[in-house]
Amino acid sequence: MPRPIRVAIVGAGPAGIYAADALLKSDAARDPGVSIDLFERMPAPFGLIRYGVAPDHPRIKGIVSALHQVLDKPQVRLFGNVDYPGDITLDDLHRFYDAVVFATGAMADRALDLPGVGLDGSFGAADFVSWYDGHPDVPRTWPLEAEKVAVLGVGNVALDVARILAKTADELLRTEIPPNVHAGLQRNKALEVHIFGRRGPAQAKFSPMELRELDHSPTIEVVVDPEDIDYDDGSIAERRSNKQAHMVASTLENWAIRDIGTRPHKVYLHFFESPEEILGAAGHVVGLRTERTQLDGTGNVRGTGRFTDWDVQAVYRAVGYYSDELPKLPFDLVSGTVPNQAGRVLAADSHQTAVYVTGWIKRGPVGLIGHTKGDANETVACLLDDHTSGRLPGAAAPDPDAVTAVLRERGIRYTTWGGWHQLDAHERALGAAQDRERVKVVEREDMLRHSGT
After folding, report:
1. pLDDT for 184-204, tens place per residue?
2. 220 assigned to some structural domain
3. What residues contact 15, with CB distance under 8 A and at least 6 apart?
4. Which of 189, 288, 304, 395 lies in the 20 to 30 Å Cα band around 411?
5. Per-residue pLDDT tens over the stretch 301-359
6. How far apart are CA 359 and CA 15, in angstroms?
7. Could you write out the three-class secondary structure of the chain?
């Protein structure tokens, strides 16, 4: 009788768990069966949901309940606090599994070639997100001395950064933020946050709901300059063909025609301003220089030669995420992805045997969390086709106990799905004491201890 297909998935965020779900729902799950191990470098699962979604967005965090159902399946095991390739290598994975799927996502900031980017007070948005989401591998404090702040980018991460900077600490105390983040935000001096986009309202990449949420806080006044509401033929065509673009533009139009209110914190949305230089003095940010742009008829813009210096003391770059390069896998430095064909990893114009990718490491950091389902289905279909066609060489040591034995021999303190339930219960108990859903544990050692490791 054939044994179950053994699959290792590196990364226990949404992309990795959706891949496990696709395997569990496949015909192979019935005959010959599947056995799936997820390896996650963090002690807790859920990746981007836990460490990339703003704490005041519990609706998005609700996706965790669906991911829970996948990890509850008996065919799935979780190995947390296991680093690739530090704790387990690709050679190890090939020995224990018939196929390996990398779902490692993207957590670093994409580089921005801008004069002054290295000044004190110039920050990557991803680093700030990791701080306020309680990532255990970042500093526990964050400098929040600036009264006027610039945010570069017109996507949802830019909105998250601006909203967290503009809200009061007590508004966020209802969320899962840990004590060190609340204490840091209590010292936040930001009164003005300026979001800059080089193109117009029709080209903004905000989600309509996330944009509207910016205006829900009783302490935040959102301001849009009526002169920034402009469209050319390309912009009009974009609005007609893209419902989300139309909804975003309509919201911005409504904000542009209203009177400015009296809420204490202001968030200014600036369009047609292309960042040219982060200005500094004595090594610290003292301003931002932008060039005014104008539409060229196609929805793109060109410079006008008119420059403005904005009085800000900090600049946050929200221009996209970038994936870490994975040892022994090819890597495209421009896109920040592993070259692949429908999820099959390419190496020297051929497929790298039994190695696959899914999620942002496959297609780049674009789209919403739910879009990773399609990635997972495509990748898993290729994996199963390779299996039925005999293109997978097969694991040399497929016994499920073999990998646990090696981790123990190496002294790896790995966490399990049962350990997550213990940590989850502890965080919820901390929250219940403060009438909150949970309080997130930050220190890695504390996470391991409360996971029973």
Report:
1. 999 999 999 999 999 999 999
2. yes
3. 47, 103, 105, 358, 359, 360, 361, 362, 372, 375, 376
4. 395
5. 999 999 999 999 999 999 999 999 999 999 999 999 999 999 999 987 666 899 999 99
6. 5
7. CCCCEEEEEECCCHHHHHHHHHHHCCHHHCCCCEEEEEEECCCCCCHHHHHCCCCCCHHHHCHHHHHHHHHCCCCEEEEECCCCCCCCCHHHHHHHCCEEEECCCCCEECCCCCCCCCCECEEEHHHHHHHHCCCCCCCCCCCCCCCEEEEECCCHHHHHHHHHHHCCHHHHCCCCCCHHHHHHHHCCCCCEEEEECCCCHHHCCCCHHHHHHCCCCCCEEEEECHHHCCCCHHHHHHHHHCHHHHHHHHHHHHHHCCCCCCCCEEEEEECCEEEEEEEEECCEEEEEEEEEEEECCCCCEEEEEEEEEECCCEEEECCCEECCCCCCCCCECCCCECCEECCEEEECCEEEEEEEECCHHHHCCCCCHHHHHHHHHHHHHHHHHHHHCCCCCCCCCCCHHHHHHHHHHCCCCCECHHHHHHHHHHHHHHHHCCCCCCCCCCCHHHHHHHCCC
- Enclosing domain of residue 303: 110-321
The reply to whether 435 falls in a domain is no
Characterize the bridge pairing of strands 284-295 and 273-281. antiparallel
Residues 114 and 149: their CA atoms lie apart, in Å, by: 17
Smallest CA-to-CA distance from 441 within 172, 136, 186, 54 is with: 136
285: domain CATH number is: 3.50.50.60
Q: Is 174 contained in some domain?
A: yes
Rounded to two decimals, the pTM is 0.94
Count the neighbouring beta carbons within 10 Å of the beta carbon of residue 442: 19
Output the average pLDDT for the chain.
95
Q: Is the separation of the CB atoms in 146 and 39 below 8 Å?
A: no
The half-sphere exposure of 50 on its side-chain side, counting CA atoms within 13 A, is 25
The answer on pLDDT for 29 being more than 90 is no
